């Protein structure tokens, strides 16, 4: 049981360090981000949200792949990760 809090502290420490170095950072549970992407798709703001996420210096996705996702959710998350590939940092945590 002690491993989970230690792991969470390390993730938070990495995010806090990035912020202290003036890097734009966002920490979000993957299921929450999938919901945001779905709502953005429905209201027509998906491109705007993806652009906003692509500009972050560090995106931390917690509980990655810990819950089942539908094909559209998987595709949306893949697009977000691909938009960031080789340009900025993305941390996937399961």
TrEMBL record:
Pfam families: IstB_IS21 (PF01695). The keyword Lipid metabolism does not apply. Gene3D superfamilies: P-loop containing nucleotide triphosphate hydrolases. InterPro entries: IstB_ATP-bd, P-loop_NTPase. Residues 12-94 form the IstB-like ATP-binding domain. GO terms for molecular function: ATP binding. This is ATP-binding protein. It comes from Paracoccus mangrovi. The lineage of its organism: Bacteria, Pseudomonadati, Pseudomonadota, Alphaproteobacteria, Rhodobacterales.
């Amino acid at each position: 049981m002690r491993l989970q809090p230690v792991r969470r502290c390390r993730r938070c420490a990495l995010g806090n360090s990035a912020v202290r170095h003036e890097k734009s950072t966002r920490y979000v549970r993957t299921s929450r981000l999938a919901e945001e992407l779905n709502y953005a798709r429905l209201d027509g703001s998906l491109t705007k949200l993806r652009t906003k996420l692509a500009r972050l210096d560090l995106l931390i996705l917690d509980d990655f792949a810990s819950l089942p996702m539908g094909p559209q959710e998987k595709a949306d998350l893949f697009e977000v990760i691909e938009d960031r590939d080789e340009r900025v940092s993305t941390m996937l945590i399961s």
